[in-house]
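REVIEWER CHECKLIST
Item 1: Sequence provided? yes
Item 2: Single chain? yes
Item 3: Sequence as submitted:
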Amino acid sequence: MKFNKLIPELSVSNFEKSLEFYTKILGFKIEYQREESKFAFLSFQGSQIMIEQVNEAWNTGRLEYPFGMGINFQIEVENIEPILNSLKENKYPIFIEPKENWYRQDNKLIGNKEFLIKDPDGYLLRFAEDLGTKPL
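Item 4: Structure as written out by the authors:
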């Protein structure tokens, strides 16, 4: 397995609940796990994250829900529909409903069909399906 150059590690309040959310509902794969540390390295279609039970080792301040205020993680996927279907089947709330967004990059527009959810600790996850590019 090749490690990405940037891999976020998310502190979670309930490791088992978060692991179930990421693997059973979203479809992330456990690449490896340290059960004694309540830690897991997860991947999904080329994206990689780590989750670990809150501990004193990494805290820079007091954690309060929602964790990660001011950040969202864009996760590019081949197709957002299977994830949406799983979220609906599991009655998991969608924070921002799916829609097409076009973002300017220099002299072209880059398109995504995307939606946002909050994980169990309030981290914002933005799943994005590539729609290609078009001129301004």
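Item 5: Key structural point noted by reviewer: The chain has a mean pLDDT of 96.
Item 6: Recommendation: ____
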